[in-house]
Specification:
With about 230 residues, this protein is α+β, with helices and mostly antiparallel strands. Helices cover about 55% and strands about 20% of the residues. The protein has a 4-stranded antiparallel beta sheet with strand order 1-2-4-3, with helices on one face. The longest helix has about 80 residues, at about 10-90. The termini are far apart.
């Protein structure tokens, strides 16, 4: 028994075209979704790569800054080591030239030195002698441990002979030397009148000591003035 199609052929053709268009539209939407998803993935990957590149660039800049700072610190360390060496050299026992420089600054301008003697004294500790009749080693050891050793510090002994106009100038010079922290045991031994080129002046003799462990620091004038 044969079937008869009562639908018009034109209708069937239009229906087939609509079905084809619908499938094409769905296929196009699917392609758009795929393309959009791929684009988002690529954009996200590009963004991550860009952020990573910026982070690497920041790390590189930080590393360069650290290298520069490290170089500066090394140079500063070398400078400090040099200053330490200079400080060690300057902290050595007092030099005679420094004492003469301070002496010239302290003495009044009216005084003229005719003689200056500087002698370095380095006393040696005296050996302990046993008391006569004391032959017991234990007793000698006990006496040695109870005895206090007093060792004088190394020092410079200065002897000054100079000429001043009056005894007042001599007294001022002696007082200035005694007030200076570098000098000790300032003693005026003698002062007598003499004649120099027809001018009456005073000839004086002064002695003083300077311990070698006294430090000297150069101070600017503005730091001294009140």
């Amino acid at each position: 028994m044969s079937q008869v199609n009562f639908l018009p052929e034109a209708y069937l053709r239009r229906r087939g075209l609509r079905e084809t268009k619908r499938r094409c539209v769905l296929l196009g939407i699917g392609l758009l979704v795929v393309v959009a998803t791929w684009g988002l993935v690529q954009f996200s990957a590009t963004t991550r790569l860009g952020a990573k590149a910026e982070a690497l660039a920041a790390q590189a800049q930080a590393s360069e800054r650290m290298q520069v700072e490290l170089k500066r610190l090394r140079e500063r360390h070398e400078t400090l080591l040099q200053l330490v060496e200079v400080g060690r050299e300057l902290s050595m026992p007092l030099h005679q030239a420094e004492v003469i420089r301070v002496l010239s600054d302290v003495l009044p301008e009216e005084i003229v030195l005719s003689e200056l003697n500087i002698q370095t004294l380095r006393p040696q500790p005296k050996p302990l002698n046993a008391t006569p009749g004391e032959t017991n080693p234990l007793a000698r050891r006990a006496a040695a441990t109870t005895e206090v050793k007093v060792v004088e510090p190394d020092r410079l002994e200065l002897s000054i002979t100079g000429v001043a106009s009056t005894d007042i100038v001599v007294a001022q010079a002696v007082n200035d030397l005694a007030d200076h922290p570098l000098f000790e045991d300032v003693t005026l031994h003698a002062t007598r009148p003499i004649d120099r080129l027809g001018v009456p002046v005073r000839l004086f003799d002064v002695s003083l000591n300077t311990p070698l462990d006294r430090p000297i620091e150069r101070v600017a004038a503005e730091e001294v003035m009140p």
